[in-house]
Amino acid sequence: MSDTVNNPVKDAAKDALSEPSSDSGISRRRLLGTVGAAGATGLVLGAAGGAAAYAAAGETPAELTTVGSTGVPFYGEHQAGITTPLQARGHLIAFDLAPGAGRKEAAALMRRWSALAGELMAGEVPGGGDDTGVALDAGPSSLTVTFGFGRTFFDRTALVAQRPPELDPLPAFSSDQLDAGRSNGDLWVQIGADDALVAFHALRAIQKAAGDAARVRWQMNGFNRSPGATGKPMTARNLMGQIDGTRNPKPSEADFDQRIFVPSRPSGTAYDWLAGGSYAVVRRIRMLLDDWERLPQKKQERVIGRRKSDGAPLTGGSETTELALDRAGPDGKLVIPGNAHARISAPEQNGGAAMLRRPFSFHDGIAPDGTPDAGLLFVCWQADPLRGFVPVQRKLDRGDALSAFIRHEASGLFAVPGGARKGEYVGQRLLES
Question: Catalytic residue among 168, 244, 255, 291, which?
Answer without folding.
Answer: 244
